[in-house]
Amino acid sequence: MKIKSATVFIIVIVFSIFLILLDGIINFFLVGRNAQDARIINYTGYIGGNTQRLVKLQLAGHYAEVEKLTKDIDELIIGLVKGSKALRLQGAVDGAYITQMQKVSASWIILKQKIAAAKNNPAMVEDLVRESENYFTVTDNAVLAEQNFSERKINTAETTQLIFTFSELSALFVIAYRTNKRFVKEDKLVDELAIFKAATDGVSEHIIFTDPEGVVMYANKAVELVTGYSVKEVVGKKAGQLWGKHMDKGFYDEMWKTIKKDKRVFSGIVKNIRKNGESYDAAIDISPILDKSGEPIFFVGIEKDVTKDIALDRSKTEFVSLASHQLRTPLTAIRWYTELLLNGEAGKLAKKQAEYLGEVSGETRRMIELVNSLLDVSRMELGTFEINSEMADVCGILESVIKDLKPSLIKSKIDLEYTCDKEIPKLLVDIKLTSFIFQNILSNAIKYSRERGVVKVEVKLLEKDVRVSVADKGLGIPEKQKKEIFTKFFRADNVRIKDTEGSGLGLYLVKTILGSIGGEAWFESKENVGSTFYVSIPLTGMKDRKGEKSIIKV
Amino acid sequence: MEKKKILIVEDDVALLNVLVEKFTKEGYKVVTAKDGAVGLKTAFLERPDMILLDIIMPVMDGMTMLQRLRKDEWGKKAAVILLTNLNSAEKVSDALESGAFDYLVKADWFLQDIVDKVGNRLKKK
Questions:
Q1: Which of A5, A462, A543, B35 is most buried, by CB atoms within 10 Å?
Q2: What is the reported pLDDT for A244?
Q3: Which residues contact A240 (CB under 8 A, 6 or more apart)?
Q4: For the domain A203-305, what is the CATH code?
């Protein structure tokens, strides 16, 4: 039977080829046409059975979407088809490996956090459902996943389940959060995360990370202690939505402009309200974290409860205020008795007696001035001073101040030249405050001028403000001390001998008043040549301000 | 010329003495009270031509005394100058609303100027 072996051989070959082809054909049908599908096979677990193939087939066309959603997270994802067995898609169990922690999109993190938060909160589940038609949560099947996943045991303390629906396909994905400490030890990346969490949970400052829109992605433990809201309540909402929003709109506008547009750190003090209704003051610092192209990818906000510090500062200022008031009574007594003595109402005075009493009288009045200034400063710092604005002629106010200063002009033999732009409109200003500012700057110019000097005063109308300049050719300000000119009680070295009167608080008050109405005060000066002080009052004028007390003596 | 009567309500003894001293020298008949309660009683009793009223006082403060004074027929028209070391815009408007003629911060005034002011006020009446 010679011919038979050749035939058999051919038949075998053909049959083999047929089998190979058949296998290929079968595979082809089963797993689809894309190269991607080969990956599915590699990825998936080994729970076998027809179901697996069925799942593979069904997922094949949608794997790209699934992959896009899941590729950047490190949690274990198990795919489960309804009613069937677990199918591992990605992730690691038992410390085998963790996918690389790549740049994670903020929205995915939020989604995960929302899901975690929604686990026990049916209302939130509904919200999530409403937000996307592509997913919703169920419970209980995690246990099923554990039981059916026979290859390795999943030790997870928390699981959350999502159902993603892609047209015809329904698959249940279990996202298992790695909370079991055993895993944490074996995995370096999770270790770092744990260290980070331990560190941020250990500080007393409230720390939050938000996305570029201000939605909280992460909040440390201190947030709970400070705001009274739990981390779960906070994450997923806009920062401050629960405890903030008690400052005026301008504050928040400025904040957003600084961190988003200017991309700089914003620092400020805010008033917040805790969950229990208690209000508190917080010092906040918000830093934008920028990506390579310079755009913010998230914001880091750190808040410190400074209520006690502010209260302490306030009580110190109130003490100064109280003490100053108390000082006035004995000072008044000294002043009046001295006055009576000087008037000869207790008998005629010898020349020397009158002279000495004159000194006492002068010093007493100096003390009274100081007390008045201390009270003004306290009111400024406590924010209790009042602004009562009316439409007034700024030049008129200046002229009135100059008139009052005539005696000292004559005494110091100073010539005052004064010009005022014709077109300056009436401005909405507090007349007393404006007079105070002018009086201060002018009396300084006179005080520090040389004898027979000239002081030039100009009032100009500019685009956004009215600018008053007072120029003297006096002692000037030493370069090194320029930055202290507007500070409390400051007296430059070169004038200390000349000027023994005055409280040293005038310029501090001028600068502070102008600062609080949107104006400005500054100067140019050269030692031994002279100084020019500038005051800028915005054309918008001074906003009325309710306070407890008027800053200027009534 | 009949002496004008002036009531000084002030709790600080030193200040009260110098005020009494000065106004007596200036030819006024002076009556005094060291708190608002006594001040009120004395005002109704003596019916002074002018009342110099301090604000911060024990028992009853100056503003309360002024308000109570204004509830009386005679008190409604009594001449009052608030003489205090408190400067408060609120208090000023309260004072003026209660019909005080003036609000003077003691420490900022010469005694003679206070005397002159009282004299001017009385002349206007």
A1: B35
A2: 82
A3: A214, A272
A4: 3.30.450.20
